[in-house]
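Example 323.
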Amino acid sequence: MTTPLDRAATWPYENGEPGRFSYARADHPAGVAVEEALGELDGGKALLFPSGAGATAAVVLTMCRSGDTIAIAEGAYYGTSELFKQLAPWGLRYVEFDQTGPPPADATLVWIEAPANPMLTMPDFEAAAAHPAPVVCDSTIATPLGIRPLELGCDVVLHSATKYLGGHDDLIAGSLATRDDDLRERLWHTRRLFGLTPSADTAWLLHRGLKTLEVRVMRQVATAHEIARRLESHPAVTIVRYPGLGGIVSFDVTDGAAALKVETSVQLIENATSLGSTRSKIESRHRWEGDRCPKGLLRLSVGLEDPEAIWADLEQALASLKA
Ligand code: PLP
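Predicted structure in complex with pyridoxal-5'-phosphate:
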């Protein structure tokens, strides 16, 4: 059944007392319904946010203090470290580390990404879980079908639900899940106090997207495997980064000019940012991330199109490099 969409901002008290829902900044029915589904997927209790970045902000505001050091995976989503940088005036420090090994000893929060976007390294979950600090895993690319970080010793799992969970490029949302009820309560208070609550429409749309998550992701991962395999032997491709899971393949051509040529030559694949939707997308990440990302790196998000059509489009775009 489809949950009816209740857009109310406020609900009448019951016998003079607030009922289950009273003011939508705290909770609303569409949000609670999708949080149940998200919690089941991640094996914890979930909270919804208006964006992945909003979920990141809630973690920091709840779990960090002035003087803390966040150790974040190198090559992870650049917006996350940019957000941490913004918090320097509040006494927050961050350092980058190679997530294929142990986090630095002095970290008070460990931030890993499975796999890192766009470098596609995978974290050493055992080493992260062995660290005394709480561990947050951004599992946007793996999705809960690829990895369940709470079962691998992480304290919090984060998703940009804008990507695979929503899956159709028509919403911006984020989610957190944890098995620690006290932490969930504290995150919920942060959300309510800072107004980091998504709209009922966003929650409803996300819930609809989740219904097809499994079939979408299975197809995207199967196609990504095949595309990565074919790119490996393409003469114009110098490096293929594919961790063996997920629907993203990052591959390198010789330089920035070649990357621009490829991304502007695709016809079926969209030349646009973001990932995880029904439509394949490709872009040079250097344009956003500068020197932390190789100039020739192209991030391909595999969609639901015919795998042969995706490959044919990539082949003709790569062939443009010879012209
Ligand atoms: N985490 C990852 C891995 C991402 O790729 C993104 C966005 O691209 C975010 C977090 C931030 O999510 P949002 O754009 O929904 O705020």
